[in-house]
UniProtKB/TrEMBL annotation:
Protein name, UniProt field: Peptide deformylase
Name of encoding gene: def
UniProt cofactor(s): Fe(2+)
Organism domain of life: Bacteria
Signal peptide from the UniProt entry: none
Keywords, in A-Z order: Hydrolase, Iron, Metal-binding, Protein biosynthesis
SUPFAM superfamilies: Peptide deformylase
Family: Belongs to the polypeptide deformylase family.
Organism name: Pararhizobium capsulatum DSM 1112
NCBIfam families reported in the protein's UniProt record: pept_deformyl, PRK00150.1-3
InterPro entries from the UniProt entry: Peptide_deformylase, Peptide_deformylase_sf
CDD domains named among the record's database cross-references: Pep_deformylase (cd00487)
Listed EC numbers: 3.5.1.88
Amino acid sequence: MTIKPLIILPDPVLRELSKPVETVNDDIRRLADDMLDTMYDAPGIGLAAIQIGVPRRILVIDVSKDGEEKQPLVFINPEIVRSAEERSVYEEGCLSIPDYYAEVERPAEITVNFLDRDGKAHTVEADGLLATCLQHEIDHLNGLLFIDYISKLKREMVIRKFTKAAKVRGAKAI
């Protein structure tokens, strides 16, 4: 297993639409394991494949609390099939937008269809932090970022800050 470098805003890769996984095989399982290692190393609670430069519809999540046993989850080709009308607000951050946090309002409960690491179909009903994390990571698969949910002024300030930092690093910009 390998820790992969994270794609950081304003890299245009983050805006790419991820393609479905055709077959769940050893390469996909290895990718999921690498994603988990990368997420834990960062540290974070969720990671989409696009965040390590792989435009495939796969994400990993672990919302266990510090001190608890790890509970890694792998979602392949996740699809939100139901969203509650009730809303909740969480302060979100992102490994691809380091050290920036903002309150985001999303549906409080969702139902997601997905394949597990063995290619078996599942449905999960999620609320709380898991629902927020799933929505955040599925957004990544669709080229969306949590800053797309904040005011235009704040979003432009964040993008300017990260674009300036990318120029200093010599990275490509959106």
